[in-house]
Amino acid sequence: MLALIGLGISGDLTLRGKELAKKCDEVYAEVYTGILQRNWIKKIEKTIKKKIIVIWREILESDFIVQKAKEKNIALLVVGDPLAATTHYIHLQDAKHAGIKIEIVHNSSIFIAAPGKAGLQYYKFGKTATLAYWRKNYEPVSALEIIKENLKTGLHTLLLLDLDKTRPMDAKTAFTQIERMETKLGMKIVNELIVLRRVGWKDEKIFYGKISKLKKMNLGYAPFCFIIPGKLHFIEKENLAEFQT
Q1: What pTM value is reported for the model?
Q2: Are residues 75 and 132 in the same domain?
């Protein structure tokens, strides 16, 4: 069996997730699609009375987990919802083809939590974008193009920031990246945005204002995600006033 178990935005197991993890022979937690705090791991280990093995991208994107699940009951713990990241659909497909039983335990996700925390209406969001680190011969501007298209129709954009093993993108880097993309496209697109810091963590905080002002502030430590607001309903405006900088 392969059990994909979501930990939500705060590293919490649901009752069903707890029961499944306890029944499994081995429990893994991946730290590629989300940041997993050490104290979350310790808390979960104490709850399920099992050692959790942390795996990185190289193992996650190999056939390691599915091969294990051919012989044992395997649990893979995922920050947020287990089906929010396309990576895990590959595990599902491979497991189905191998005749492995699959269990999925859903949990809270940044896709739902971020709009709710900011006081915005879910149905007014367009396509989600990811702001990737620029590297040699890799300077994508697709995130800005998605934001532009959403703004045309008055829709909000959830902007996820790149995450790798050593450095989740911080807010200052993200601001610079947005400006570099605007320069490359030759147009100004993002004027104001909502910064959500460490959603679901104890030091969670939200900021809302002009990007020119936010870039001068100390916004704290990653992980971050942004929301670029489209046309705001008056109730959304009232909700955002709480976070105005």
Answers
A1: 0.93
A2: no
